[in-house]
Design brief:
Distance between the termini: 28 Å
Strand order of the largest sheet: 4-3-5
Largest sheet: 3 strands, antiparallel
Order of helices and strands: HEEHHEEEH
Strand content: 5-15%
Structural class: alpha+beta
Radius of gyration: 33 Å
Number of strands: 5
Oligomer: single chain
Length: about 200
């Protein structure tokens, strides 16, 4: 479905006119809901009527697939030069999948990672990325900056707690711009008709 362009409206719309437009919007919404409900009901009835025959046909089709697979496995000479075999009604064959790694019996990916760190450390990756969820959750937290033995330490201030005057205070969200990002909240317009209205 093509994306609809935003309508350009130049008329002066008063509250009374807006109420009239909302009434029309609600009627149309109710009609659309009724049509969709009827459509869903008809589709469900058709599915119910055809389900048995579809199940039966699918099971038969699957049994023929299994027989053709058995033929291919027991006749490897037919596939000696190629991985497929042209037949009267189409083609059968074997497709080689994309290479993938699979753990050996008794190993987990965690144990594989530990062993790789020992034997092939260049094949173990670590992913450094911003913890966006934590940044959003902690955006209003305040910290005092302290120096201990040449190390910078951030001590969190409790909500409402006053900081000593001689200490530098950092609010997490103040560091966002310095770090090259911002926290935004989008607004989307909505129209929510009351659902008890019946279509006219």
């Amino acid at each position: 479905m093509a994306r609809k362009k935003k309508a350009i409206i130049t008329e002066d719309i008063t509250r009374d006119i807006a109420e009239e437009y909302f009434a029309e919007y609600s009627k149309l919404d109710a009609k659309i809901s009724k049509i969709l409900a009827d459509q869903d009901l008809k589709i469900a009835k058709i599915r119910e009527q055809k389900q048995d025959i579809l199940t039966e046909l699918s099971e038969k089709k699957e049994s023929y697939f299994d027989k053709l697979y058995h033929f291919a496995e027991t006749n490897p000479d037919s596939f000696a030069s190629r991985k497929s075999l042209e037949m009267m009604h189409g083609k059968i064959g074997f497709r080689t999948g994309t290479p993938k790694l699979k753990t050996l019996r008794g190993f987990t990916w965690a144990s594989v990672t530990n062993l790789l760190q020992e034997f092939l450390p260049e094949y173990v990756r670590t992913k450094d990325e911003p913890n966006k969820e934590l940044l959003i959750a902690d955006r209003d937290k305040r910290f005092i900056v302290e120096n201990e033995d040449g190390n910078t330490i951030h001590v969190e201030l409790a909500k409402g707690e006053e900081a000593p005057e001689d200490k530098e205070i950092i609010v997490i969200s103040d560091m966002f711009t310095k770090s090259g990002f911002e926290c935004i909240q989008d607004e989307t317009f909505f129209v929510e008709p009351k659902k008890e209205e019946e279509p006219v």
